[in-house]
Task: structure prediction
Amino acid sequence: MGAIVNRVRELRMSADMTQQALADAVGVSRQTVNAIETGRYSPSLEVALRIARAFDQPVEGVFWLARESGR
Amino acid sequence: MSDLSFQEKSAWGTLVALFVLGALYFSSVWNLWRADELHLPAVFGLGVGFTVLLVVVLIAYHAVVAVLSRPEDEDERDRLIGWRAGNAGGLVLGFLVVTIVLHIVVGGLVGRGFAHELAESPALISVSLIAALWLSTVVELALAVRYYRRGT
Result:
């Protein structure tokens, strides 16, 4: 099992969204979004799916295992 | 403080209030014990007084935090942190209660020393159990604060 990495911050910046706006869209606190972006917290599948939907992306386009990062 | 979620502010405030008021409570109990006046009515009175004070302080603190913060529900990370910290706090409480019970049993058999004094004094048993509950809660809140800072 490798650590989960993500490009939430990159997608959020591209969408010109604040952490608070994403947090409201997903149903978590702004601090949780910050913890996800900085890799300090790996969200549940449900929250990961909600984040992916907020960016209109497949979940594997937002989150993936670290060992797959060379893909 | 503005970078902290409501839940994290709550954990911090409760930890500080519990630590300060707990220190005052146990310092009062210690003084009573040294003066050989540690009896159940005194322990009960002190316990009720400090509990009421703690509740008032925590209500006031949470009211201020709620007014100053953006209202937010507990999310999955808050629940995970609460569960992990609560689990550790429960283990500490269980360990301390078993330790106290063993001291009482040993004290009843040996007939001297602190264990015997504990076995013979309902007030001391009460204070020990309150101390176990206090310490386990402090550990739980300290871990919650640490988990919040670390992410989980």
